[in-house]
Every structure is written in C-alpha cells, then in structure tokens.
Amino acid sequence: MEAPTYTLRDVPAEDRPRERMLQYGAQALSNAELLAILLRTGTIHESAVTLAQRLLNEAGGLRRLVEMSTEQLMKLKGIGAAKALQIQAGLELGRRLARTTQPETVTIRSPHDVSRLLTEELRYLQKEHFVCLFLNTKNHVIGQETLSMGSLNASIVHPREVFLAAIKRSSASIICVHNHPSGDPTPSPDDIEVTRRLVEAGRVIGIDVLDHIIIGDRGFVSLKELGLM
Questions:
Q1: Would you tell me how many other CB atoms lie within 10 Å of the CB of residue 130?
Q2: Confidence band, pLDDT 50/70/90 cuts, at residue 123
Q3: How far lies 67's CA from each of 14, 60, 173, in Å?
C-alpha cells in the first residue's frame, strides 16, 4: 500500500508557518517553523514543518545545526543540495547580523556638529544641495535626505516635501542644510524666505525646524545664530 503524502496543504491554515508569521510575527514561531520557511517545501512523506523538526532532532538542536557543513546536512534524509544551501544561507545571515554593531549615534548639540557631519560632503559640490537631517526627541540623527538640487528658492524647496519626509521617519525635529558653490556661506534673501516658510509650516505640523545651516568652502553660517529664524 502506497504511503500517503503529507505536505503543508494538509496542515490547518492556522498552523502553517508563513501564515502564522504574517499574523503574529517571526518572534512567535518555533525554531522548526522558522527553519521550515527556509526549506520552503517538505518531502513526499513530510511537511516542511515536520522535516524541519526532524532535522533539528537529528542534528541535536539549532546550535549543532549551525555547525554542520553542507556535506553533513546532505546526509540527513530529505535534504539535498538546494535545501542544504538554503539552510546555510539563512544561518550565515544570522551569523553576520550577530557580528554587526549598531552604527554610532550622531547627536546634534550645536551648528558645529552639523558642520562636522556634512561639510566634506557638501563643500565642493557645483550645485546647491538642500539636505535635511531628521532628529528624534534626544537630537539623535535618525535620517538624512537630499530633497532638492539647484538654486535654493521657494519653488524648489517646498514644505510639503520636507515635512512629508520628516513624518515618514517619525521625526521630532529637523535641521536644514545647504551649500553655496560660490564658497561664501552668507545667506541670500531666498535662503531667509525659505527658512521662514519652513519654520511656519513646522509650527503648524508640530515638527520643529531647529536651524538652517549654510556651508561654504571655508566655513558655515547658522541662520539660528544670526537671529534669522
């Protein structure tokens, strides 16, 4: 008598790992369920979850599975070259993540901090680049984006684009920065007008514009320090 096949289609929907991960998140899944998602399919006699659980049992647990070579994995019943490589690729990503460190947090305490962060990036550009730094409540930089290139004026830098980018990052405040290709960081009337419009829009939205820094070849200017905002 032919043995019945057993695939994920035979498993109740609420017990399928992909569906459970979508509904509850990866943290709710067992090691076997996560491994089953890497395997993608089972064998003719086992679902992916059953196969994954057997592999963990035969390997002696997740830690021992990590130590196994491709050849050792392929000796386990139901594991060919493709599945062995899928397992190892997933495990290697986990190892690499464990070796990475959180990028150093940049905190903005003064215009000098902004200058140190962006001067070398902006000072030699041949066009004006308008950059926003997005900050959290502790003045840590949580994002940076160039929002326009070209001569700075109200038609190029619109509050809508600036604050849409800030809202997407859940920013508490922003700092605006742009360069003067001439090398002279003295603010122009357009610089002052754009800053005024951004500050007003920020008050309405509830996202503070802390400063607008203009970077030149040999120095920078803070519109906040000049009393222009």
A1: 21
A2: confident
A3: 32, 11, 47
Written as one letter, the residue type at 1 is M
Asked if 76 and 59 count as a contact pair (C-beta separation under 8 A), the reply is: yes
Handedness of CA 162, 165, 168, 170 (dihedral sign): negative
Over range 10-17, report the average pLDDT.
Answer: 58
What mean pLDDT do residues 71-86 have?
93
**Tally of residues, the chain:** 229
Name, in order, each residue with C-beta under 8 angstroms of 191's C-beta and a sequence gap of 6 or more: 152, 178, 212, 214, 223
Q: Which amino acid is at 38?
A: L
